[in-house]
Design goal:
Blueprint: E1 2-4, E2 7-9, H1 23-31, H2 37-55, E3 58-67, E4 81-85, H3 112-118, E5 123-128, E6 148-149, E7 152-156, H4 162-169, E8 175-180, H5 186-192, E9 195-198, H6 208-211, E10 219-224, H7 227-240, E11 261-264, H8 276-291, E12 295-298, H9 307-325, H10 340-351, H11 356-373, E13 379-383, H12 401-409, H13 416-421, E14 425-433, E15 439-445, H14 451-464
Parallel strand pairs: 4-5, 11-12, 11-13
Antiparallel strand pairs: 1-2, 3-5, 6-7, 8-10, 9-10, 9-14, 13-15, 14-15
């Protein structure tokens, strides 16, 4: 831990079994018997303990770390310690969804994605915190300590996969589970200097809740410190289950020689202008890509002018449905105990629920505008977020709802489109940082099934300018 003025940086990197390995490197060390699985689990648990008092990232820890079932040494991440996000069932552990509205009981079975994650051979140490039901882009609460950003503990770690992001960025574990329903992989990746890829809808196994929704916007994945970890996870997940409707991905191992046409989007299609530091980071990335031989040109994404309010209405519908069905989570569920953001979303939806058919119809048509923007292009480069990582409290659910939702919409202005359309998108760290040293993420978006191209361009950027490391501060 280092302290400079009011800034505190927290990390757990040290000379132990984990060292400075990413997940692929650690798994290789285990396979070569340079370190043992039990030793790695023990040292990872010690790392978590070392940072948890400052970061507040863990929801629950297993008394005995649990290795991926039925994989042994064959899994690509065999013996690599990780955490599952606390909106996904893990047998025997409570699934709390970040909510104080009920008391969760132990899950009776693994969720389908949990089984897919375990198939990689990981060792699960516990579950990570998220904001209530994953609605917020920051992992904060009305009556509990927030999850803090290890690069600068006065700032947000992002959301909703903020707990996972904080632990990976701090070096407690190399990789952790995350999922994304409006930016919840990419936002914390941008805040914490990580790689965060939201896969194509259907690339990984879907959970039951998503299949029941009128529009499934949530996709699972991981947060990592290296491109190769994210690539290795997707390749391994595909060996467990592959969607025959999507092109096979396989293992992506480095940049491609192909020269791409990349669209440049600096401001949100719905009029939110990105701040100076964010624009500079994206512009620098565009210049780097041109230096690598790619063509970068401005692009327009002509969304329906009602896209933002429609997505907000869909958020409200989800909060309403949780309020109606909450007793399936716990017999003591009380929607009045949901936090200010969840209540505000629900109440706004109820006032205008008759718009729902039109909202769903327009959201589903977003794929037409998205496809039109990609004519003649391979990828689109944009900010992840419209401004840099805010301090703790700026997006707290305790902020009055009208002010809070205005702040959220001025921040989360780029990521939801990919959730609605179902297309893949990746956040990678920019070379530049804020004046406070906080990371800034840049985002690449692709066509359905184009994870390979996203990973290849991310590899190229990582090779050209290795991502900043928290342990070097």
């Amino acid at each position: 831990m280092t302290t400079s003025g009011k800034q505190t940086t927290v990390h757990a990197f040290c000379d132990d079994a984990l060292g400075e390995h990413d997940a692929v490197g650690l798994a290789e060390a285990i396979r070569r018997r340079e370190v043992g699985v039990e030793e790695v689990a023990r040292d990872a648990a010690a790392r978590v303990s070392a940072v948890e008092a400052r970061l507040n990232a863990v929801q629950v820890r297993l008394d005995v770390p649990a290795r991926g079932a039925g994989v042994g040494a064959g899994g690509v991440f065999a013996g690599v310690p990780t955490f599952v996000k606390d909106n996904t069932d893990y047998l025997g552990l409570p699934t709390g969804h970040g909510s104080a509205a009920f008391v969760p009981k132990g899950a009776r079975r693994h969720a389908p994605f949990t089984r897919q994650l375990l198939s990689t051979g990981v060792t699960v140490l516990g579950k990570t915190r998220l904001p209530e039901f994953g609605f917020s882009p920051t992992t904060e609460y009305e009556d509990a300590e927030p999850v803090r950003n290890p690069w600068h503990t006065a700032h947000s770690a992002g959301g909703s996969s903020g707990g996972s992001a904080a632990l990976v960025a701090a070096g407690a574990v190399p990789v952790a589970h995350a999922n994304d329903g409006g930016g919840s992989i990419r936002i914390p990746a941008a805040c914490c200097g990580l790689v965060g890829l939201k896969p194509t809808r259907g690339r990984v196994v879907a959970n039951a809740q998503g299949r029941q929704l009128p529009l499934d916007i949530v996709t699972d994945g991981v947060l990592s410190r290296s491109v190769r970890d994210t690539a290795a996870f997707l390749a391994a997940a595909e060996t467990h289950w592959r969607n025959p409707k999507l092109p096979p991905l396989g293992l992506v191992e480095g940049p491609s020689r192909r020269r791409l046409r990349i669209g440049l989007l600096l401001d949100s299609p719905n009029g939110v202008r990105s701040d100076a530091a964010t624009r500079a980071a994206v512009t620098e990335t565009a210049a780097t890509l041109e230096g690598l031989g790619h063509t970068v040109e401005p692009v327009e994404l002509a969304l329906d002018p009602r896209f933002t309010e429609d997505f907000l209405a869909y958020w409200g519908l989800l909060s309403f449905l949780i309020g109606v069905t909450g007793r399936t989570l716990g017999a003591d569920f009380d929607r009045r105990r949901m936090d200010g953001l969840s209540r505000g979303l629900r109440e706004a939806y109820v006032k205008d629920w008759l718009r729902t058919p039109g909202v769903l119809r327009r959201l589903k048509r977003t794929r037409e505008a998205y496809a039109a923007a990609f004519r003649g292009l391979d990828l689109v480069l944009s900010p992840v977020l419209a401004h840099t990582t805010p301090p703790i409290g700026h997006l707290s659910p305790g902020v009055p709802y009208p002010t809070l939702i205005e702040r959220i919409l001025a921040y989360v202005a780029f990521t939801p489109v990919n959730n609605v359309v179902g297309t893949p998108s990746i956040s990678v760290p920019a070379t530049s940082a804020t004046e406070d040293g906080l990371p800034i993420g840049v985002m690449f978006s692709g066509r359905p099934g184009d994870e390979r191209m996203l990973l290849e361009v991310a590899y190229a950027l990582e090779a050209g300018a290795p991502f900043r490391r928290i342990q070097d501060l």
